[in-house]
Design a protein that fits this description.
mainly alpha
């Protein structure tokens, strides 16, 4: 399954990846508009999530041989 998805992702350009990021960010904004109590989440928790989500991609791009 993951091999199939990896082959499909290889067809995406840098612009396509940027558009996916913008769509995800827009979804996040929409989610906050629907559930405004999400704004009260502590910023340290958000920073922790950001770091955790970035660990593998950063490792793969910069450190994996």
């Amino acid at each position: 399954m993951f091999n199939y998805l990896n082959e499909r992702i290889k067809k995406l350009s840098v612009v396509d990846m940027g558009l996916i990021k913008l769509a995800a960010m827009t979804f996040g904004i929409l989610l906050v508009k629907i559930l405004p109590q999400l704004i009260s989440v502590r910023y340290r928790f958000l920073i922790l999530l950001m770091v955790l989500f970035a660990l593998k991609p950063v490792y793969v791009v910069w450190f994996k041989k």
